[in-house]
Write a structure and sequence with these properties.
This protein is an alpha+beta fold. The protein has two helices and four strands, in the order βββαβα.
Length: 70
């Protein structure tokens, strides 16, 4: 909560990563940084923020399994 108001975050992670050259592979949100999927690292940053109450992650339905594993 911040100034008496709830704070929500939407993480837009439904792309395919084509601008990053990820065609045929997993989208960049599932690429690993220090062994951890990027999407998880991003969510953890917001989760540690004392002002953030809710986190919503928008993921392409094709990658639900990868999201759940992350």
């Amino acid at each position: 909560m911040y100034s008496g108001k709830r704070v929500g975050v939407v993480i837009a992670a439904a792309g395919h990563g084509t601008r990053m050259g990820q065609e045929g592979g997993l989208p960049k949100q599932f690429m690993r940084i220090d062994g951890v999927p990027m999407i998880r690292k991003t969510a953890e940053v917001f989760d540690r923020n004392k002002y953030v109450d809710d986190i919503c992650v928008a993921v392409n339905g094709e990658y639900i399994k990868e999201y759940e594993e992350a």
